[in-house]
Amino acid sequence: MTLKRLLGLDTRADRYSYASDPVAGYVSAQKIPDKWVATTCGYCSVGCGMFIGVKNGRAVSVRGNPDHPVNRGMLCPKGLSEHHTIAADNRARYPLLRRNGAFGRVSWDEALTTMAAKFRETQERYGPKSVGVISTGQLVTEEFYALGKLVQLGIGTPNLDGNTTLCMATAVAGYKRSFGSDGPPGAYEDLENADVILLIGANVAENHPILCWRLRANPSATVIVVDPRVTKTAMLADLHLPLKPRADLALINGFIHFVIENDLVDHEYVARHTSGFEELRESVRTYTPERVSEITGLSVELICRTAWTYARARAGFIGWTMGVNHSTKGTETVNAINNLALITGNIGRAGAAPFSITGQCNAMGTREAGFASSLPGYRKFENPDDRRELAHLWSISEERIPTARGLAYPDIIEAALDRRIRALWIIATNPVVSFPNYGSLRQALESLDFLVVQDGYHPTPTSEYAHLMLPAAMWGEKEGTYTNSERRVSKVNRAVPPPDEARSDFDIFLGVADALGVRDDIFPGWSKPADAFEEWKRISAGRLCDYSGMTYKAIEQNGGLQWPLPAGKVHDGEVRRLYTDGKFQTDDGRARLLPSAWEPFPEQPNEEFPFVLNTGRTVEHWHTRTKTSKVPILERLSPSAWVEMNPADARALRLKPQARVDIVSRRGRVQSVELRVTETVAAGQLFVPFHYFEANANQVTQSAFDPISREPNYKQSAVRIEPSSTEGRLWSGGSAIRNSLSLIRSWRGSTIPILPRGSSESRARGAR
Ligand code: SF4
């Protein structure tokens, strides 16, 4: 395939003449923009600054912003091709209402009047809480702030949550328990300042590529990757710890045990700024290197060497993502990470932070302003002072502020299943592909009396279930702000208008408020996102996430501004970290050292389901592929799902590379997936990307959730491999079950050897 075809360019020579563009270099004449509009990438939480090239009112290209402090002009493959997501042929264009089983076009007026009437009717019959709302990490902060007020104060249901619970709730809950508040304490610059970087369950090379580039900008740091797979990030590491699935909590407790036993504790920091050290010491007493070696499958020497290296660092950075968060023990694992950072004094200094790398472009915005798991400004539902202050700022009676959070996302789905939730509004997310245990999710959606789906695309697997479809503008078509993982607020701008009758989510929220007759009450004088931003600045003033010193203009001029930025503070470009003074957001100002006990994962493999299935991402795609399946280069690079299996298992099952296989669990079957035989997964484990509706990994994942954060345990499902029920020709083995016992026997005690950083062997192993 030629490069031009791969990039999705038409190869007919008469359509392409090449010309010099002053900023983009030599490009297709058709693609030389009339203007460049500065904005922020709408995919991941790295928050890269970029420009959208616009020609004749259409987005035709994208380039990185060389002055943006996050990415300094670099973009990953998704960012570089993001303009294609705007022009997709399945953009939602008109409000659609289902009548007699079929969608028909209606006016916005009819759509919003119908929605308001259905919600009110449902609440009158079944109570205020019978309506639920599931949002996203994709809106701008101004929209999250507006949506929270609309749902909690206007519609009057506390049952609001977002798909951020599927990826970040664990980090939020862990930070709140340890430090008294959500908020990642560090900054990206810490990757360049640290002398030891410990990445746990974080494959930044695939999932946050520009962070990987920043990681490589610090060649003198010792990079340690803890991951059951030999990921692309592990291949860049100095040390890879290929632990057994879900052994992370035992490993971290083992590090803490080693640090305490060998007196590597920062006693002064612990005495001045933490509480609970004696309880922590007692809780890790049994996590000896020998026991941890047994649980993790790692050698005693490797465990001790890693603990020593981190504890002796001048500045130690710990980053983590879904490998930690997607677990029934996730919140406790985050607490253990925080414990390790605290007892070694690795927080609040350049290069030293326990740092949750968030997922979506504005997951942070909903955490700060969203009124779902916290009140806006990280205020607590259960704190009467916080409720009183908020009521005063909004000039409303205190009784209108809920005293406890409503149902979290998985509990909204469960409530729909047992008919406590009757009407649901899903905004910019696609649970049919992203929610675990597809079978129960489908039943829940089918149980609803009224489902509204608001999205930039239609049809999507989820919008097919809707009674009402609201067409929304998306990235590149609307204005506001995103906050990235390092708490940097960046501007998002409109480059092109939305298609046909699609409206910005912000305008839709104003319209719903109008239809409900609550607009003047909750959005006084608002007509544009800047009105919400000005109110949000007031609400956040004095809080940890203080925006009051920001303006849209200053955000644009500085390539984003990190919070906290109180009013009157100079925009000095200084990197901001939290807890630099050792004062935390707890009642006594001390961070809490919280004992956390390791447990085996809930669904252990057995003879019938002998493999442990891990799910995750690939660099070419974004979440459920609603956007990236419309981008030619990304779709061509990664058009369909696959499953990775160790060569020993493939041999035992007599399976050949590229065979078509089914993945089967107690809950369902993923059909006809390509088999990739690779040593990047250990024997007994499998890996499958979760992006593909056509091979939906969530047909086999389980309904198991972290009891504290409610985040799903997407990983470690017990499965077996069968010949494809539709194409089984390449299967040359017998029954998977027949081979299971010998497989389990052969895996006992097996681990993948450590590969030297950048070795030719490690590179070869990464080849897919
Ligand atoms: Fe966009 Fe993330 Fe890629 Fe940056 S790293 S270009 S924010 S997807």
Major sheet description: 7 strands, mixed
Strand order of the largest sheet: 7-6-18-17-16-8-9
What is the helix content?
25-40%
Look at the structure and give the mean pLDDT.
Answer: 89
What is the strand content?
A: 15-25%
Oligomer class: single chain
Class from helix and strand fractions = alpha/beta
Shape: globular
Name given to the CATH architecture of the largest domain: 3-Layer(aba) Sandwich
How many beta strands in the DSSP annotation?
Answer: 28
Distinct compounds present: iron/sulfur cluster
List the domain count as a whole number: 4
Q: How many individual helices? A: 29
- Give the CATH class of the largest domain: Alpha Beta
Description:
The chain is an alpha/beta fold and 768 residues long. The protein has four domains: 3-85, Single Sheet (N-terminal domain of TfIIb); 108-167 and 361-544, 3-Layer(aba) Sandwich (Rossmann fold); 169-356, Dimethylsulfoxide Reductase, domain 2 (3-Layer(aba) Sandwich), CATH 3.40.228; 611-767, Beta Barrel (Barwin-like endoglucanases), CATH 2.40.40. It is built from 29 helices and 28 strands. A seven-stranded mixed beta sheet has the order 7-6-18-17-16-8-9, with helices on both faces. Strands 23-27-24-26-25-28 form a six-stranded mixed β-barrel. It is globular. Residues 1-24 and 728-768 have low confidence and may be disordered. Residues 41, 43-44, 46-48, 71, 75-76, 78-79, 208-210 line the site of iron/sulfur cluster (SF4). Iron/sulfur cluster is lined by residues 41, 43-44, 46-48, 71, 75-76, 78-79, 208-210.
